[in-house]
Amino acid sequence: MAIIRNEVPNVLSEDDIPNRLAEGWRIVVISLQDAEKRQSYWYGQWGIKAVSGDGKYEQTLVTARKGMEARVFKSINGLVSFLDQFGITIHSIPTKESQIAWQTLESQ
After folding, report:
1. What would the pLDDT profile of 33-66 be if each residue is shown by its tens digit?
2. Most buried residue, 11, 61, 64, 86, by CB count within 10 Å?
């Protein structure tokens, strides 16, 4: 499966996520580099995109604190904690660069 393409509008803030999920969008986690286990923790780099229900549009999660740069999670613990607050409680996390994993809401 190819990496998801960017379309306009192509950015998403953390505050937009509940609205997108309510509209039927899905969350995708993208591994930006191979993950590695250090002691009992996994580290790597993961990004998040929201994809419309019909697959025609997608938006990359960005952070307003760093000039609208893509938000990058550097530990699985941080990523899972972030997803969990939006009702994504069954987590699929890719561990190899360029892999993607579709997330499922508890209600789906």
Report:
1. 999 999 999 999 999 999 999 999 999 999 876 6
2. 61
Structure tokens given for 31: 């591994």
pTM, two decimal places: 0.86
Pairing of strands 11-12, 58-63: parallel
Rounded Cα distance between 88 and 105, Å, is: 5
- CA dihedral sign of residues 105, 27, 34, 71: negative
Which residues have a Cβ under 8 Å from the Cβ of 23 and sit 6 or more positions away? 52, 53
How buried is residue 48: exposed, middle or buried, by Cβ count under 10 Å (0-12/13-18/19+)? buried
